[in-house]
């Protein structure tokens, strides 16, 4: 590539380690070091709920009009696996970022007094924790366990990547995060928690990020369906931005032994709970890496930021291709 405005980026496909914070942070360090040492990554995106866990298949003992004692105990366990911001866990992530020189975007389950939030945090190797985004709308049964975010946590962060041995020029870019969307349908009469937030399917949220000039659109997720890839390509083309989507890959063995599964009569450590599908997409819709399916791993690619401008030559959805005389976006940013 002739451009000097190149960022080396990785998406990490991995899962929470049985709700163990220590083991999960150790895994984060190992995979961040792999992204840097093998691929010379400058930014690494981890999946939704990587810290704290995504409780796939859990019911939390809820039916309309009643909550069970067993469900309250399950929520207590999940609450105790979450993290405060700030906290020693955030300090550890800051240390990983500083030691590797990698900017980290990761999903966490954030604990704030009595409420949990599905959150993405941004951690700089120079400045440490620099921002967070709380998911705006949990879907369906997720509303039992996660609160709603608001306009106070919609950052589009301007970040500079310092020169490296491979890249002599400092590069400045804008980074945002939008967390997931997921829906599966399972036959049977048992109610299970199977949906995830609608954020990447919220056109006005995307439009807000485009209006702020996002170039690295991070999409932490647990959506492993093939249709997810179509959404990521569409967003990249629509926003003329790079999309970095990191999905969990998880098997039954990665959850506590008593965790809910799709079929209790066919439990097996290797049964897949979340199948992956991490991907990196260019502003013109080209798949640069992935999709990775059926295993944990790290995908990396060179991102030429000038491709965002090349793409906006014929499509800038909040600029020359907008019609503010017909449509107007009013964002309530606190």
TrEMBL record:
Record's keyword terms, sorted: Hydrolase
CN hydrolase domain boundaries: 7-305
Keyword Iron: no
Keyword Hydrolase: yes
GO molecular function: hydrolase activity
Coiled coil, from the record: none
Top-level lineage group: Eukaryota
Gene3D superfamilies: Carbon-nitrogen hydrolase (3.60.110.10)
Similarity comment: family membership: Belongs to the carbon-nitrogen hydrolase superfamily. Nitrilase family.
Protein's name according to its UniProt entry: Carbon-nitrogen hydrolase
């Amino acid at each position: 590539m002739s451009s000097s405005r190149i960022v080396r980026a990785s998406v990490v496909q991995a899962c929470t380690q049985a709700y163990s914070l220590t083991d999960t942070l150790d895994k984060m360090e190992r995979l961040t070091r792999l992204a840097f040492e093998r691929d010379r990554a400058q930014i690494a995106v981890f999946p939704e709920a990587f810290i704290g866990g995504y409780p796939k298949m859990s019911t939390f003992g809820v039916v309309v009009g009643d909550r069970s004692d067993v469900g309250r105990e399950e929520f207590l366990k999940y609450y105790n696996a979450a993290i405060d911001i700030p906290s020693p866990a955030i300090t550890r992530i800051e240390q990983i970022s500083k030691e590797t020189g990698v900017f980290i975007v990761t999903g966490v389950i954030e604990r704030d007094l009595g409420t949990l939030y599905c959150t993405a945090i941004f951690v700089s190797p120079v400045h440490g924790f620099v921002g967070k985004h709380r998911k705006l709308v949990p879907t369906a049964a997720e509303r039992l366990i996660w609160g709603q975010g608001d306009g106070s946590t919609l950052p589009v962060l301007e970040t500079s990547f310092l020169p490296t041995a491979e890249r002599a020029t400092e590069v400045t870019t804008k980074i945002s995060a939008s967390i997931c969307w997921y829906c599966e349908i399972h036959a049977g009469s048992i109610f299970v928690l199977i949906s995830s937030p609608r954020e990447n399917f919220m056109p006005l949220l995307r439009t807000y990020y485009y209006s702020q000039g996002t170039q690295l659109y991070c999409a932490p997720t647990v959506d492993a369906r093939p249709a997810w890839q179509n959404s990521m390509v569409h967003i990249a083309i629509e926003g003329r931005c790079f999309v970095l989507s990191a999905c969990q890959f998880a098997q039954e063995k990665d959850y506590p032994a008593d965790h809910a599964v799709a079929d209790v009569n066919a439990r097996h450590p290797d049964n897949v709970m979340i199948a992956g599908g991490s991907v990196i997409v260019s502003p013109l819709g080209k798949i640069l890496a992935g999709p990775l399916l059926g295993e944990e791993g790290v995908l990396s690619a060179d991102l030429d930021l000038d491709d965002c401008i090349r793409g906006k030559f014929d499509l800038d959805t909040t600029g020359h291709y907008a019609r503010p005389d017909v449509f107007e976006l009013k964002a309530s940013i606190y």
